[in-house]
Amino acid sequence: MKQIKVLGTGCRSCQLLVDMIAETAKGKCISIELEKVEDIQEILRYGIMSTPGVVLDGEVVHSGGMPAKSTIESWLQ
Amino acid sequence: MPESVENNAGVPPMHVLTHMHSRHPFVFLLSAGLLWTLVYSNLPSAAGALTAALPLNPSGHLAEAIRFLLYEAPKVLMLLTAVVMVMGMINSWFTPEKTRSLLAGRHEGVGSAMAATLGIVTPFCSCSAVPLFIGFVQAGVPLGVTFSFLIAAPMVNEVALTLLFALLGWKVALLYLGLGLSIAIVAGWVIGRLHMEAYLEDWVRNMARVDPGYVPEKLGMAERLNAGFKAVKEIVGRVWPYVVAGVAIGAGIHGYVPQDFMAGLMGSESSWWSVPASVLIGVPMYSNAAGIIPIVEALLDKGAALGTVLAFMMSVIALSLPELVILRKVLKMRLIAVFVGIVASGILLVGYVFNAVL
Fold this sequence. Notes:
The complex is a heterodimer.
Chain A: E1 3-7, H1 12-27, E2 33-37, H2 40-45, E3 53-56, E4 59-63, H3 69-76
Parallel strand pairs in A: 1-2
Antiparallel strand pairs in A: 1-3, 3-4
Helix pairs in contact in A: 1-3
Chain B: H1 2-8, H2 15-23, H3 25-41, H4 43-53, H5 61-91, H6 96-103, H7 108-121, H8 129-138, H9 143-155, H10 158-168, H11 170-193, H12 202-205, H13 221-255, H14 259-266, H15 274-282, H16 289-301, H17 306-318, H18 321-327, H19 333-357
Helix pairs in contact in B: 2-3, 4-5, 5-10, 5-13, 7-9, 7-11, 8-9, 9-11, 10-11, 10-16, 11-19, 13-16, 15-17, 16-17, 17-19
C-alpha cells in the first residue's frame, strides 16, 4: 500500500490537497495510507521550502502550490 | 473543493488554443498579446456606450457609478491577468531554492538589496513563510538578508504593483516599488546590525546546516507558458471577487460619499496622528493587495492624503497578524517585536515624507 504524507502548517491549499488526493484514490478504488503532517519541525526534516509538500513512500515528490490532477494520479499508479 | 475539480477539466472552446500554445508558444504569446491590446484599448468607449444604453440620467450619481464599475472592473482584471501570466512565467526561473542559492553567503548590505529584489520575482505565500525562513537560515543566508526577503516578498509583489498602476498611475506604482524595497533593505540591514541570532528559537539555531547547492530544472517555453496559466488560474481565480467587490465599493464611494468626509478623516488638512492611526488600523487587518487597493483608490479620489493612504496599505499587506503567529514558531517574542517595530517605523516615515512632499 502506498504511503502518502501531505506536509503543511494548515493553510487552505494544504487541506485542499489532502482532500484531492483522498478523492482521487477513492475514485480509482486504490487504498492508500494518507497522513497530514502539521508539525513544523517534522515538515522541515524533509528539507522543503514551500508548502504544501507531498512525500510518497518516504520521498519528496512535490513542494509548493497545487499539483495538477494528472500528477496526483501518477503518484497513485 | 468541487470548484477546483471543475477548473482542472479542459474547457472545450479553449481546446484549439491550448493545443497551439504547446506547439508554437511564441506565436501564441504574440497573438494573445495583440488580442489583449485590442480589447484593452477599446474598454473606455465600450463602458461609455453600455452606460449610455441604460435608461438613466447620464449626469446622475448612479450612471457615474455604473460607468466607473463597467470600465474599472474589466480594466483591472485584464491588467492583472496579463501581469500574473508574465510573472508566473518569470517565477519559473526563480524558485525559492534558486533564490536561496543566490543569497547564501552574501554580505549584509548587498545581500539585503538582492534579497529585496528577488522577493519581487520569487513566488511567496505567507503560509510558507516558516519553511522558507528556516531554509534560508539553514543554508547560511544572514538573518538580516533573510528578513529583507521576508519583508519585500509579500509587500512588493506583482499584484500590488499592477493594481496601483491600473488605478493610480505609474508614478504611484514606481514610488511604492522604490519605498517598499527601501524599507525591506534598511529594515534587514538594521536587524543584521543588531545581531539578533540569539532570539531565534533554540531548535532553529541547533539545526544542521545544509548545502545550498542547486540544480536548475530544464524547462522549455511551453512549460513556462503552462506555469503562467497555472499562476493565472491560482491568483486571478482567487482574487477576482475581491477586485470586483473593491471596485464596486469604490464605485459606491465614487458616486455617493461626500468628499469632505474622507478628506477630514485622512486628508492633508488632518492632524499629525492620521499616519500612525492608519498604521495601527492596518496591522491587525489581513488582506491581500487585491482586496485593499480599490478601497485605497476610492479614498484618494475623495481627497485622502497619498502618504497616509500608502502607509495604511503597506501596513495591511506587510504586517499581518496571521503571519506573525506563524513566525512565532521560529522567532522569540523579542525578535518579532523588533521586526514589527522597524517595519512599522519605516512605513510611518514613508507616510510622513509623502504627505510632506506632495
